[in-house]
């Protein structure tokens, strides 16, 4: 049977503009192009897991607008259960304005919109379905009170919960981090949460150890972009090498990692191997434009892995 993943998080429309360079203050530039994509960290992670074959339940909010209509249709097109995605009148669907340079690097500005209306009561209403999931994913584009409630919900019911602490925000309860199963920060977020440097691999290992979840199977999984990832558990630390890939657009690469990690972990229950595969999945995503539009299905991912293993260019 397909693994079941619950995602509690944001749903956005991504307004993506491609530029030769970022404009200076007061300057107007001709853009290279514009694309409208589906986004939001929660929705991105849900789609990545669904594309690989997981059965995904989404808990979130959209506005009563055309972006909300499109977002719901998109989630449903990926066979994601949207019964717990509410419609909020009087607020827009979340929006992200994304500027992408030729290197693939991006700058992102977020309007939270309906994402700010995802409340603890929404988790309680979705509880019967969330309790059937093998792993619940969280991010920080919804209210912190809701994130805290979800972590407690998982701990109280013995459900595995993974938190992607992005975008980094003050006010996250440090005591609750130890009640997670997986904490999945990038290098910058790891430094902010631990209060320690993360410049070297040794730094990342030391910082990760301060944040280890109490669960026996718990881990801190630090994503490091082109350098891969670093997995820390109570038993060992493992550095997973990155995959050399020519970047086209790095938007959503972190979400590709986390959504695919959720699928792989729920399938095999091996955190290190799941992270190794997620590094490859994220590398494949940056070779294509967009966030969700760049996410591969299982067959495409298998073909990519075969190319990598044969020594071909990613």
Overview of this protein structure:
With 314 residues, the chain is of the alpha/beta class. It has one domain (4-21, 34-308): 3-Layer(aba) Sandwich (UDP-N-acetylmuramoyl-L-alanine:D-glutamate ligase), CATH 3.40.1190.20. The chain is built from ten helices and 13 strands. The chain has helices spanning 41-52, 66-77, 120-130, 144-157, 174-177, 187-194, 201-209, 253-268, 271-285, 298-309, and strands at 4-8, 12-18, 33-39, 55-63, 81-88, 94-100, 106-111, 135-138, 161-163, 182-183, 219-223, 229-232, 237-240. The strands form two sheets. The chain has a nine-stranded mixed β-sheet, sandwiched between helices. Strands 3-2-6-7 form a four-stranded mixed β-sheet. A hairpin with a 4-residue loop joins β12 (229-232) and β13. α1 packs across α8 (253-268) and α8 packs antiparallel against α9 (271-285). The longest helix is centred in the last third of the chain and has 16 residues, at 253-268. The model has no long low-confidence stretch (mean pLDDT 94).
In short:
The chain has 314 residues and is an alpha/beta fold. Helix content is 36%, strand content 23%. The chain has one domain: Ribokinase (UDP-N-acetylmuramoyl-L-alanine:D-glutamate ligase).
């Amino acid at each position: 049977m397909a693994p079941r993943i619950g995602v509690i998080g944001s749903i956005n429309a991504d307004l993506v503009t491609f530029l030769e360079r970022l404009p200076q203050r007061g300057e107007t530039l001709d853009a290279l192009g514009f694309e409208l994509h589906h986004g939001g960290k929660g929705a991105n992670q849900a789609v990545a897991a669904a594309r690989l074959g997981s059965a995904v339940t989404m808990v979130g909010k959209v506005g009563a607008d055309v972006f909300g209509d499109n977002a719901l249709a998109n989630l449903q097109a990926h066979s994601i259960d949207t019964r717990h995605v509410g419609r909020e009148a009087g607020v827009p669907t979340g929006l992200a304005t994304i500027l992408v340079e030729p290197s693939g690097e991006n700058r992102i500005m977020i309007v939270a919109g309906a994402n700010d209306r995802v409340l603890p009561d929404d988790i309680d209403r979705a509880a019967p379905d969330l309790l059937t999931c093998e792993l619940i994913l969280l991010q920080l584009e919804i209210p912190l009170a809701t994130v805290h409630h979800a972590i407690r919900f998982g701990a109280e019911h013995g459900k595995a919960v993974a938190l992607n602490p992005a975008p980094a925000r003050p006010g996250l309860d440090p005591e609750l981090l130890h009640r997670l199963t997986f904490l999945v920060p990038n290098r910058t977020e790891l430094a902010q949460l631990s209060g320690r440097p993360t410049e070297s691999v040794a730094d990342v290992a030391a910082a990760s150890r301060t944040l280890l979840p109490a669960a026996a199977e718990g881990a801190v999984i630090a994503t490091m972009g082109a350098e891969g990832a670093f997995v820390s558990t109570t038993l060992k630390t493992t550095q997973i090498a990155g995959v050399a890939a020519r970047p086209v657009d790095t938007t959503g690469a972190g979400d590709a990692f986390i959504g695919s990690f959720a699928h792989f972990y729920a399938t095999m229950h091996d955190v290190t191997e799941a992270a190794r595969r997620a590094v490859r999945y994220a590398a494949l995503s940056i070779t294509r434009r967009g966030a969700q539009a760049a996410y591969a299905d299982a067959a495409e991912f298998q073909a990519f892995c075969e190319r990598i293993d044969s020594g071909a260019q990613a």
